[in-house]
Amino acid sequence: MLSDAHFAALSATEGLDASAANLTRLAERFGSDVAAWAFSQWECREKGQSKFAKAMEMLFSREALEQASHERLAAYHASLFEEGELVGDLTTGIGGDLIALAARGPALGCELDGERAAYAMHNLEVHRLAAEIQIGTSLEFNHPVSAVFADPSRRIQGQRTLQLRSFSPDPVVLAARFRSMRRAVMKLSPMLSDDDLGQFDAQVQFVEFAGECREALIVFGAEPQIQAVQLDSGEKLEPLMPVMQVDEPQRFLAEASPAAIRAHCLGHFGLASLGDSNGYLTGEVVEPNPWLSIFQVHWVGRLDQVAKELRRLDSSTPEVKQRGAGLDLIKLRKQWRGEGNRRLVVLLYTIGKSIRAVIGEPGP
């Protein structure tokens, strides 16, 4: 557990490289385990800045940091519960979601790993918040709460899995307990199949943040439906498929955002689906929309013609995107390197076994 020596070592290692000489010198003073811990904390703190504004004051374990919700996502999770309602966080980890819940109102944590629980307590203090944390498994959590949050681990021996029943704790077992609660929210992978997510008979939210579909939230106690949620814009969509599919792009090509694609919401924009792309839409007119990245089409053709057309269009090295083509985009970008003045994009899509290329320019 944490001691005064840990925090002294943390102060002593601030700004130092984790070189062999520094490790040896600090190990002589604090012991090898504490010295190694302190250096690892500074490495985690650097990485943690991508998720937490106060990361340089917080404590982490590497795996728990990877699993922790970004604080913007955690704030959204907390917003799904009523203010002032006592909420139990059944998978506390280093406290990312517990911090957001405690900022909203009274909260309890549950964490199996004592070291992670200690880090969570420290991280709450960093944010000038407080919550009780019970040591034990989420299935042993027996506090009489009517609202809970859970983020089952998606790893088996450190490796990610998409086998739902291999998540820990088992989401199906958790769901059986959640039926009697007023509100429960479970965070799962958006890469799980529709069948996996649909078995819970609850609301499913595909949450997009910073241009990525980050998670699938299962919301028990809410109307069963599917939603795409975009945190940056505050927009929400429900499923609606396009009414038409075409093989050739029209004047504009639009790439739908990840959550809109995952939640099957592409019919909301009044555009045709392009080929077999599942995500590229096209039309003669495309209105600006937070769910769409829009490109004006300059050329359509075969892959072996792309380099010539990029030169003709005075392109710099293009960005390369694809949906369904399965090609090496880094290799293609090197192959199509250019020194022109226009910032163009090559978008690849499929029609059956055929791959088509579009050269487009961002914006209307």
Give me the secondary-structure topology.
Layout: H1 4-13, H2 20-30, H3 32-48, H4 62-67, H5 71-79, E1 87-89, H6 96-104, E2 107-111, H7 114-126, E3 132-135, E4 147-150, E5 155-156, E6 159-160, H8 171-178, E7 183-188, H9 194-198, E8 203-209, E9 212-220, E10 226-230, E11 235-237, E12 245-246, E13 252-256, H10 258-262, E14 272-274, E15 280-283, E16 292-301, H11 306-312, E17 319-323, H12 329-335, E18 345-351, E19 354-362
Parallel strand pairs: 1-2, 1-4, 2-3, 4-7, 8-10, 12-14, 17-18
Antiparallel strand pairs: 5-6, 7-9, 8-9, 10-11, 13-15, 13-16, 14-15, 16-19, 18-19
How many strand units?
19
How many H/I helical runs? 12
Named CATH architecture of the largest domain: 3-Layer(aba) Sandwich
Low-pLDDT stretches = none
CATH superfamily of the largest domain: Vaccinia Virus protein VP39
Distance between the termini: 58 Å
Strands side by side in the biggest sheet:
3-2-1-4-7-9-8-10-11
The overall average pLDDT, rounded, is 94
Assembly type of the chains comes to single chain
Strand portion: 25-35%
Secondary structure class reads: alpha/beta
Helix content: 25-40%
CATH topology of the largest domain: Rossmann fold
